[in-house]
Amino acid sequence: MSFLHRSDIALHSAATNEEILMFHLESKAHLIATHPALPGMTCDSFCDIIRKSDSMKKVSILLLCDGSPQQRELARRCNVNAVLTRPVETRLFAGKVQELLDIPPRQAYRVVLNIAVEGMHNNRPIMCNSENISTTGMLIRTREHLAEGNRVDCSFYLPNGSRVSVTGDIARVFKTDQASDAIHCGIRFRMFTPGTESALAAYVNHEMQRQHLTDQHASAQIA
């Protein structure tokens, strides 16, 4: 489940379907995981409201049911994307969440970097530093005034010498130090120049394997 800690993923909890509905109405969630026995509004009414709303219906809904015949019948009536029976095995749940969020497991791995990035925003060059990167996006640090939704064209060299040129959108902006004028931006990649995507994927995969071997060695030493 470590992919849920990515910088561009935010988790929110709720005690009732009404709370989920209010949050989704305000913030437009990408995935809702709920249970038929949640207090308040019935699950089928909850799903019906979402699916009939043009502004809310695009969300994926994952229903976590008990094995009772009543809940299985309720799940059949609800217009949801997937149903899992509790207790759910962690690997199965993680795989279904990744599928509904369209996050390939390997692409969820992020590599820690410290490289200068040359970028363009509104046809104006910007400078920033990349703090980590995956095959779907990266986290940068900059003093530029960027906002969510801004398009940026990035060009940089990976530590292995491969040049990467990619166009992306700012998906998230936040500060880690309120006293500093630097901000962090999560960039979601949209379009790569030819050959760039495969080079980035090869680098990320290599670093993932290297880290896995390092973790195995550390575990062996501890044992």
State which percent range the strand residues make up: 25-35%
What is the CATH architecture descriptor of the largest domain?
A: 3-Layer(aba) Sandwich
* Radius of gyration over C-alpha positions, nearest whole angstrom: 21 Å
Name of the CATH homologous superfamily of the largest domain:
Response regulator
Under the CATH scheme, which class of the largest domain? Alpha Beta
Instruction: Kindly name the structural category.
Output: alpha+beta
Distance between the termini: 24 Å
Number of strands: 9
**How many distinct folded domains?**
2
Keywords summarizing the entry:
31% helix, 223 residues, Rossmann fold, 5 helices, 6-stranded antiparallel beta barrel, alpha+beta, disordered C terminus, 2 domains, Thrombin, subunit H, 3-stranded parallel sheet, 9 strands
SSE blueprint:
Layout (H helix, E strand, L loop, with lengths): L16 H11 L3 E4 L8 H10 L7 E6 L3 H9 L4 E4 L4 H12 L9 E11 L2 E10 L3 E6 L8 E7 L5 E12 L8 E10 L3 H27 L1
Parallel strand pairs: 1-2, 2-3
Antiparallel strand pairs: 4-5, 4-7, 5-6, 6-9, 7-8, 8-9
Structural description of this entry:
By secondary structure, this protein is α+β, with helices and mostly antiparallel strands. The protein folds into 2 domains: 2-107, Response regulator (Rossmann fold); 110-195, predicted glycosyltransferase like domains (Thrombin, subunit H, Beta Barrel), CATH 2.40.10.220. Helix content is 31%, strand content 31%. It is built from 5 helices and 9 strands; from the N terminus they run H-E-H-E-H-E-H-E-E-E-E-E-E-H. It has helices spanning 17-27, 43-52, 69-77, 90-101, 196-222; strands at residues 31-34, 60-65, 82-85, 111-121, 124-133, 137-142, 151-157, 163-174, 183-192. A 6-stranded antiparallel barrel has the order 4-5-6-9-8-7. A 3-stranded parallel beta sheet has the order 1-2-3, with helices on both faces. A hairpin with a 2-residue loop joins strand 4 and strand 5 (124-133). The longest helix has 27 residues, at 196-222. The protein is elongated and about 60 Å long. Residues 104-109 and 215-223 have low confidence and may be disordered.
